[in-house]
Structure to design on (308 residues):
C-alpha cells in the first residue's frame, strides 16, 4: 500500500509541509489542494523540478478531491495568518476566515469517501479541529490538531538554551489551547535527568521568565517575517510520520478529552489509527486549574462560532 498524504492550503506553512515531505521522501503520493490554482500548480511544477536532484520520487496530484479517497493522512493548512498582524491579535482573529474555508473543504473531504486521519494546523487549531470532526463525521480519534506540539518544542528550546543542552534532551509538555491560554506544565519537565522544578529552586531560575520566553518565540518569528512556518510545519510532518509508521509515540497534540468535553492539547499515544491511548499526567492543583481555564476558553469560543 502506498503512503498517500494530502495537503490542503498551500500558503507559507502548507508549502513548507509539502516541501519537507517531498525532500525527505516521506510519501509516495502527495495530493496538493488550494483555491489558488496558479499557486498550487506552480508549487507542483517546482517540486517536479526538484526531483531530478532528490534521492526520492513523489507522485504529485493537484486539486483533485477524489484523490483523497485512499489517502492515509490529510493535513489542513487553510487559513490567513496576515490577519494576526495587528496589536493584541491572537489566533482567534483567523476564525471567521478559517471557519468559512473549513465549511467549504470538509464536505468535499467527506464526499470523497476519505476514511483516514486529519492533521489540523489551521488556527485557532483546537476549535477548527472540533469543526473538522463535526463536519466530516470521522471518529474523534482520527481528527487531531498539532496543538501544543509546537509550543512544547519552543519550551524545550528555551530550557535547552538555559542549561546548554540539546532541546531533544529536555522532556515535558505545554498543555491546553494552542493560543494565549496555554501554559508550561513545569511538573512534567525534566532536564539533566532531574525535575526542572528542583533545578530551578537550587539555581534560582525563574520559571515564569522561561515560560514567557517560550510564548514570545512565535511572536518574534512572526514579527521578523510576518508568518511562522518551519517550526509548525516540522511538528505537523512529525505527526504525519508517527501516523504513517504506526510508531505509537506520546505527543502533546490537540485531541478530544471526555473529562473536559473539548479538543485541547494533552499527551496521547499516536499511531496508525490516530489517537490510540490518552495519557494521564499527575498535574499540580495550579496546573489543573490552568488546564480547566484553557478548556473553558476553547469551549466558549467553539459555541460562539457555532452560533454565528
Amino acid at each position: 500500500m502506498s503512503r498517500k498524504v494530502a495537503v490542503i492550503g498551500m500558503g507559507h506553512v502548507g508549502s513548507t509541509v509539502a516541501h519537507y515531505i517531498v525532500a525527505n521522501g516521506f510519501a509516495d503520493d502527495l495530493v496538493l489542494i488550494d483555491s489558488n490554482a496558479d499557486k498550487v500548480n506552480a508549487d507542483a511544477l517546482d517540486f517536479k523540478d526538484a526531483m531530478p536532484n532528490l534521492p526520492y520520487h513523489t507522485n504529485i496530484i493537484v486539486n483533485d478531491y477524489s484523490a483523497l479517497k485512499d489517502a492515509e493522512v490529510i493535513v489542513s493548512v487553510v487559513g490567513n495568518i496576515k490577519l494576526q498582524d495587528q496589536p493584541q491579535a491572537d489566533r482567534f482573529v483567523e476564525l471567521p476566515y478559517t471557519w468559512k474555508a473549513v465549511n467549504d473543504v470538509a464536505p468535499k473531504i467527506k464526499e470523497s469517501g476519505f476514511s483516514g486521519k486529519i492533521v489540523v494546523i489551521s488556527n485557532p487549531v483546537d476549535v477548527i479541529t472540533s469543526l473538522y470532526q463535526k463536519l466530516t463525521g470521522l471518529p474523534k480519534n482520527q481528527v487531531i490538531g498539532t496543538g501544543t506540539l509546537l509550543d512544547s518544542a519552543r519550551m524545550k528550546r528555551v530550557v535547552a538554551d538555559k542549561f546548554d543542552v540539546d532541546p531533544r534532551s529536555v522532556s515535558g509538555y505545554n498543555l491546553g489551547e494552542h493560543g494565549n491560554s496555554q501554559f508550561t506544565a513545569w511538573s512534567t519537565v525534566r532536564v539533566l535527568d532531574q525535575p526542572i522544578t528542583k533545578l530551578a529552586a537550587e539555581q534560582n531560575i525563574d520559571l515564569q521568565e522561561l515560560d514567557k520566553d517560550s510564548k514570545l518565540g512565535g511572536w518574534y518569528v512572526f514579527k521578523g517575517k510576518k508568518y511562522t512556518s518551519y517550526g509548525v510545519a516540522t511538528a505537523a510532518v512529525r505527526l504525519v510520520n508517527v501516523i504513517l509508521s504506526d510508531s505509537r509515540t506520546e505527543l502533546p497534540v490537540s485531541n478530544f478529552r471526555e473529562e473536559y468535553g473539548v479538543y485541547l492539547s494533552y499527551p496521547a499515544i499516536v499511531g496508525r489509527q490516530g489517537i490510540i491511548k490518552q495519557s494521564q499526567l499527575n498535574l499540580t492543583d495550579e496546573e489543573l486549574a490552568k488546564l480547566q481555564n484553557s478548556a473553558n476558553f476553547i469551549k466558549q469560543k467553539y459555541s460562539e462560532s457555532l452560533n454565528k
User: Anything to note?
Assistant: The longest helix spans residues 285-306. The longest strand covers residues 262-271. The two ends are 42 Å apart (CA to CA).
